[in-house]
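Severity: low
Component: inverse-folding endpoint
Summary: output formatting inconsistent between runs
Steps to reproduce: submit the following structure tokens with default settings.
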């Protein structure tokens, strides 16, 4: 384990919950990208696989935590994106 790897994961780990809470509170996904979130999850999964196969240590729990936070944000993204799309459809019907 590298101290820099752990610090990087701690910093990201501190940031993702704020993003999840913001999405949950505002129910707004503008500025978010499902592709970006999916790629971040994929990156964390590759990190987890590397830790399991080549260099197992307790930092793996930070990878798992971060991956779960981003997964939760992605789930909220699809939930609120569907709601936004439904509201936009209703607004367009009322205008016409």
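Observed output (run 2 of 3):
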């Amino acid at each position: 384990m590298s101290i820099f790897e752990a610090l990087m994961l701690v910093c990201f780990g501190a940031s993702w919950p704020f993003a999840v809470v913001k999405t949950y509170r505002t129910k707004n996904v503008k500025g978010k990208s499902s592709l970006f979130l999916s790629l971040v999850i994929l990156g964390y999964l590759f990190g987890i696989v590397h830790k399991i196969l080549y260099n197992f240590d307790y930092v793996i729990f930070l990878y798992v935590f971060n991956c779960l936070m981003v997964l939760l944000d992605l789930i909220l993204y699809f939930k609120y994106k569907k709601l936004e799309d439904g509201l936009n459809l209703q607004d367009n019907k009322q205008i016409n």
